[in-house]
Amino acid sequence: AAIQIEALAAGVDYFKIDVGTYPSNDQGLAALYANPGNLQHWDGPYVRKKASLTDPWGEPYQYRYPGEHGPFDVYSLGADGKVGGDGENQDLGNW
Questions:
Q1: Are 91 and 74 in contact (CB under 8 A)?
Q2: Which contacts qualify for 76-83: CB closer than 8 Å, 24 or more apart?
Q3: What is the pTM of this model?
Q4: Helix (H, G, I), strand (E, B) or coil at 1
Q5: How far apart are CA 68 and CA 21, in angstroms?
Q6: Span 65-74, average pLDDT
């Protein structure tokens, strides 16, 4: 999950380079796979497979803009799908 999160964060950065802003919360990480509304300078996809938007536990990766830990946050709530936790239940993010 940590490696996937870093790849998604890089995709968000590439999206910003092309489009001029980070994806909105409404656009979310899906904007890395498909143009969310015919954005003129969108030059994606910024991820190879739509499945890469899903964490190892079958849940969509979370995205928040603006982020609490940086310009944007990409994260997974771990195996339990709840905030916090240890081991497999630990939250993972791009911070």
A1: no
A2: 76/1, 76/5, 78/1, 81/57
A3: 0.94
A4: coil
A5: 17
A6: 98
